[in-house]
Amino acid sequence: MGLEKHFQYPLGRILIFARAPLPGRVKTRLAENIGAQRAATLYTDWLCETVRLCATSALAPVELWCSPNTEHEIFTSLRAAYGLKLATQPQGDLGTRMQAAMHQALQQGEFTVLIGTDCPAMDVDYLASACRVLQAGTELVLGPAEDGGYVLLGARKLDDSLFDGIPWGTGRVLQQTRMRIASIGYRHAELASLWDVDRYEDLQRLESGSKF
């Protein structure tokens, strides 16, 4: 608790979902074009940059939620470098895992923001915007992705139905989530749309120097 006084939002939590960067286990669609080893190397780079961005932002305490566990050396080295908390993602689909992590974070603080590791256009201002909206009392905030998903989900409160029956990994995630939010009756805000790196075309876009 002693370090929390240095955060802009000490009662917020930033959660980063990450997988151990093992060849063949991460960025499999991208690996079809560039090979499993390079895909894993790129994933490692993005993971480290995402953690650095969040941990040095001084916005809120950061938790790295790891899969399949917290034992990979990249996770322990990031903990040593930035003093962040490591946690193991529970079993289940993406919705089940996000729900569990966010519920736990909300038991410890007033709001939580959850992100992944492969959105090069996300910066501190984007994260700060999400925190500001939640601090002001809005119940949910979404960071839409160009591919029909989302790159950020923030919450002050959660209804479990928010994650039930969502077609994860498809272009309908954002639309279905918006409909679910409307049915729950939560107030929500949306940030600017960003893009993440899932396919070879996305990598080419990144390597061309474009973040937007």
Characterise this structure.
This protein is 40% helix and 17% strand. A hairpin with a 5-residue loop joins strand 5 (140-144) and strand 6. It contains 7 helices and 7 strands; from the N terminus they run βααβαβαβαββαβα. It has 212 residues and is of the alpha/beta class. The termini are far apart. Strands 3-2-1-4-6-5-7 form a 7-stranded mixed beta sheet, sandwiched between helices. Helix 1 (28-34) packs across helix 2 (36-56).
Layout of strands and helices, then pairs:
Elements lengths: L11 E8 L8 H7 L1 H21 L5 E6 L5 H10 L2 E4 L5 H15 L2 E5 L8 H12 L4 E5 L5 E6 L17 H12 L3 E3 L9 H8 L5
Parallel strand pairs: 1-2, 1-4, 2-3, 5-7
Antiparallel strand pairs: 4-6, 5-6
Helix pairs in contact: 1-2
Alpha-beta content class: alpha/beta
Q: Given the C-alpha coordinates, what overall shape results?
A: globular
Q: What's the multimeric state? A: single chain
The largest sheet, given as strand count, sense and whether it forms a barrel, is: 7 strands, mixed
What share of residues are in beta strands? Answer: 15-25%
Regions with little confidence, pLDDT below 50 for 5+ residues = none
- Between the first and last Cα atoms, what is the distance in angstroms? 37 Å
In round numbers, the mean pLDDT is 94
Radius of gyration: 16 Å
Write down how many β-strands occur, each being a DSSP E stretch of 2 or more residues.
Answer: 7
Number of helices: 7
- The run of helices and strands is EHHEHEHEHEEHEH
Helix content: 40-55%
